[in-house]
Amino acid sequence: MDRNDAPAYPVGLRLAGRRVVVLGGGQVAQRRLPGLVAAGADVLLVSPSATPAVEAMADAGEVRWERRRYTPGDLAGAWYAVVATDDAAANAAASAEAEERRVWCVRSDDAEAATAWTPATGRDEGVTVAVLTGRDPRRSAAVRDAVVEGLRDGTLVAPRHRARTPGVALVGGGPGDPDLITVRGRRLLAEADVVVADRLGPRDLLDELPPHVEVIDAAKIPYGRAMAQEAINDALIQHARAGKAVVRLKGGDPFVFGRGMEEVQALAEAGIACTVVPGISSSISVPGAAGIPVTHRGVAHEFTVVSGHVAPEDPRSLVDWAALARLRGTLVLLMAVERIGAIARALVEHGRDPQTPVAVVQEGTTAAQRRVDATLATVGATVAAEGVRPPAVIVIGDVVALEAGRA
Ligand SMILES: C[S@@+](CC[C@H](N)C(=O)[O-])C[C@H]1O[C@@H](n2cnc3c(N)ncnc32)[C@H](O)[C@@H]1O
Questions:
Q1: Which atom of ligand 1 is nearest to the CA of 336?
Q2: Where are the beta strands (DSSP E) in 53-131?
Q3: How far apart are CA 321 and CA 35, in angstroms?
Q4: How many angstroms separate the CA atoms of 48 and 18, rounded?
């Protein structure tokens, strides 16, 4: 084999405190310096000029900048060199000096003459991805992007064996569309041994889990309603104590009518570490998916998210419906399908205009999404006549009447 065709030998350089010489202060230096600084290298930049970004790094004391051209001897004491001036003769001379001194050297103008190549690199949570394809830097970048992206969104399953997130992760799964979970949530799901899932949320993601993952359907835990939360807490605690990586997957955001804090408190009492990963709440995303912004300039300066799980006249209700009726902005009701007639009546009785537009969005962001429009005066009857079923988000206010394409 021709010496030049031999594959590069990959290695991770530990440059902290070690001298690295960068020749040239242009675009190449601008791209390489942040990584060298992050690696803790003692960087000497030799260049008569520099880009503003490189200059800023020098001003910040991250690199030492000598404003001059390369002179032989500059590589004395270096462990690694980046040769990237706009002067081919200087590059060749510096490269020869590097060879002479046995300093690994990358060269921007002549990869074949270099003794080292810079891989396309990316990082994700303690993993460094470095890709070399020889003479195809675009392919290197594409492979790097695919791997880093896959690690970030959990589609590339690479469980941690040394340092897995201990305890329980309380993950907000978003409103239902599997693409609407956070990158962190998806990664934790990909690393889980046990997943305790709600009825709402991105249930499609459960199908993608490897067979060894135990999926517990929280809706099917066999206790009465009052006991169910305790049983869920117990399941989380038992599995975490058994050393499993547990994900509690919830719909929307864990802290928006999600009983998330009850689980956090139960875990804290049991001495189990808990990570909370926010999710996209249905209260904003479901209206949005149906084309309704919860605020709009000149229309609504506030939106209020309210639970409708108890009727206005119910003594257990903590909601001041009279105060809500006086607000001009948007009301977003969750868990209100069964009681929307009584809620609408209460709002009108307390002064909200009966002609206020209302939209009911069922199973938002999923393939079954549907939107039913009404007014405060008609919504109770419309919901019954149309057979609207939970889960649905009900939006009340002038934002409902806004249409795309109309200012
Ligand atoms: C117990 S609450 C949980 C809310 C959740 N934590 C959140 O932030 O979206 C359940 C209610 O959220 C609303 N909901 C959640 N997902 C929905 C969806 N995909 N479409 C319509 N409503 C949804 C419904 O009002 C449902 O009754």
A1: 25
A2: 64-66, 80-83, 104-107, 120-124, 127-131
A3: 56
A4: 23
Q: Which of 170, 366, 393 to mutate to test the pocket of ligand 1 (most atoms within 8 A of CB)?
A: 393
Summarize pLDDT for 221-279 with one digit per residue, the tens.
Answer: 665 655 688 899 999 999 999 999 999 999 999 999 999 999 999 999 999 999 999 99
How many angstroms is it from 177 CA to the middle of ligand 1?
Answer: 12
List domains and CATH numbers for the chain: 3-118 (3.40.50.720), 168-280 (3.40.1010.10), 283-401 (3.30.950.10)
Amino acid at 395: V
Q: Does 59 participate in catalysis according to the annotation?
A: no
- CA separation (Å) from 162 to 165, 244, 284? 10, 14, 38
pLDDT one-digit tens code per residue, 60-101: 999 999 999 999 999 999 999 999 999 999 999 999 999 999
Catalytic (active site) residue 124: no
The pLDDT of residue 152 is: 79
Contact 250, 173 (CB under 8 A): yes
Give the helix, strand, coil percentages of the chain, each rounded to 5. 35, 20, 45
Nearest CA to 334 out of 218, 139, 200, 238 is that of 200
Q: Which two tokens stand for residue 64?
A: 């030492």
196 phi and psi angles, rounded to 5 deg: -105, 110
What predicted TM-score, i.e. pTM, was given to this entire model?
0.72
**Using one digit for the tens of pLDDT, what is the confidence trace for 137-160?**
889 999 999 998 888 777 777 766
pLDDT at position 165: 61
Catalytic residue (choose from 198, 244, 250, 253): 198
pLDDT-based confidence at residue 28 (cuts at 50, 70, 90):
very high
Identified catalytic residue from 2, 5, 207, 220: 220
